Amino acid sequence: MLWGPAARLCVFLGAVIVGFGTVAAFGTPGSTTVKQSDAEAIRARVKRAFARPKAIPQPPDNPITPEKVALGERLFNDPRLSSNGKISCASCHDPRLAFTDGVPTGEGVTGRPLKRHTPTLWNLAWARRSLMWDGRSESLELQAKEPIQNPDEMGETLERIVERLSRDPEYKAAFASAFPSDPKVRADNLLKALAAYERTLVSPKTRFDLWVEGDENALTEEEKKGFDLFIGKARCINCHTGFAFTDHSFHDIGLPSEDDLGRGPVVGLERLNFAFKTPGLRELAWTAPYMHDGSMETLEEVIRHYEAGGVDRPTRSREMPSRIDLTDEERQALIAFLYTLSSENPPKPSQEFSLSKRQASLETASGDEKAVATATVSQRNKEFTPGHVVIKRGEVLTILNDDTRTHNVRIYDPRFDFNSGAQEPGETITIALPTTGTFKAFCGIHPNMELTIEVE
Ligand code: HEC
Ligand code: HEC
């Protein structure tokens, strides 16, 4: 039987409601009989949340063009960006190894082991404020400076690279065609080209995508059962959601290593110690070892960690079940499902997007949402609702944590700096904005949550 006993289905429904508010309408929490057709409807509905995007998001000031991407790819693979002329971005993010390096921690120009595992670079166009394991980089444009200048990675200065590349006629021509209105070999152009190239590193279609698109035969029964566990009993969907299988947020999943505090010090919140960003799960077959410290070799090891629940400490995410009981068969099914997110041959970036056409802009999130005149905002299901408000000058904005998770409301603005600290479920915060104008708030734990506030 496809769906197992009704009791299991109830667990499944409950979990979907926790993880995925939009699905709640389909099930009745706590009901004891769930018709097979309802269950099928939920599977179909949840599946849609993993559908591939139609376009690559890009910032308005750095549109993706084929010329820029070609230049970025060349820079990415060029060891002349390092102090000893031997290390390129690709030395650690090897395109032949799914943009990773296959070791727990890599090494750069000094040969000293790095502090953290090299992450793969798939699907970062969707990451916004959650770059690096601790989210300290705000954009791909800014991120690229870090490995170049890090003494243990490439150990070089942008000035010296610009000087070196300016003497190369081929690079001069490539910069000129990538930046026709500003045809210079310059540091900001170099960072823009690298970022534009990285945005095109979209993981290719796999059997899972064919299934989501409607081909029922693309997955085996075992793999489909693994999907049911992923979105149900095992609660993986609580954090690994969407096409890239990440919520772009930070969680402590209870890994035993305690020498790296992760997100905590970046946002100045102890509640977030040991929290790291949720990595995407695409192409896992090619990206072992796993985790920020590269401590796990196999997917079986990863799943056994979630089954046991990890180290129980105050910072451990509330979205982590403290224990999951899986049979050997279920564990195998979950692993089989995870493999459907990987290519059968070494993966190459997807070619499904046309780079010459102007595509979706990054600024579409909350800025484009219709403004609502209200001074009260909800944070249910990791979303500010409404996402765009208008208030009067002098009016106080109230933000409720009516969610099941801790949030952290922040405004980084030269006119006004705000940090709510850890805002636990049930807590309300108020913000008195000092002046008229438009302000952007976001959550330090779930940075894709954004709120636009207009003060009139
Ligand atoms: C010596 C190895 C090494 C080199 C060289 C290197 N990286 Fe990395 N990269 C890493 C490590 C390790 C991290 C994780 C660092 C952290 O989170 O603290 C990382 C993180 C990243 C991230 C963030 C990924 C994510 O999932 O958030 C991006 C983007 C990135 N690197 C791009 C680049 C680019 C572009 C270059 C070349 C300019 C480069 N890297 C060179 C090792 C390297
Ligand atoms: C509370 C949120 C949360 C839940 C629930 C969760 N994960 Fe994760 N997952 C993370 C975070 C955060 C990391 C990175 C942790 C680190 O490195 O410190 C991670 C890492 C992973 C990795 C390693 C990926 C890599 O590239 O290093 C895999 C595989 C994975 N999770 C699979 C799963 C599966 C399967 C489930 C369900 C059994 C699951 N996760 C449930 C948040 C979560």
Describe what this molecule looks like in 3D.
This protein is α+β, with helices and mostly antiparallel strands and 456 residues long. 28% of the residues lie in helices and 9% in strands. It folds into three domains: 66-199, Cytochrome Bc1 Complex, Chain D, domain 2 (Orthogonal Bundle), CATH 1.10.760.10; 204-339, Orthogonal Bundle (Cytochrome Bc1 Complex, Chain D, domain 2), CATH 1.10.760; 365-455, Sandwich (Immunoglobulin-like). The protein has a five-stranded mixed beta sheet, with no helix packed on it. Strand 6 (409-413) and strand 7 form a beta hairpin. Helix 3 (66-76) packs antiparallel against helix 8 (169-178), helix 3 (66-76) packs across helix 9 and helix 11 (221-231) packs across helix 14. It starts with 5 loop residues before the first helix and ends with a strand. Bound molecules: heme C (HEC) (2 copies).
Features of this protein?
456 residues, Cytochrome Bc1 Complex, Chain D, domain 2, Immunoglobulin-like, 3 domains, 3-stranded mixed β-sheet, 10 strands, 28% helix, globular, disordered N terminus, binds heme C
The helix/strand order is HHHHHHHHHHHEHEHHEEEEEEEE
User: Helical residue percent?
Assistant: 25-40%
**What is the global morphology?**
globular
Tell me what portion of residues adopts beta-strand conformation: 5-15%
Q: State the fourth-level CATH superfamily of the largest domain.
A: Cytochrome c-like domain
SS-derived structural category: alpha+beta
Lateral arrangement of strands in the main beta sheet: 4-10-9-6-7
- Report the strand count: 10
User: How many discrete structural domains?
Assistant: 3
Number of helices: 14
Report the CATH topology name of the largest domain: Cytochrome Bc1 Complex, Chain D, domain 2
CATH domain class name of the largest domain: Mainly Alpha
List low-confidence stretches.
1-32
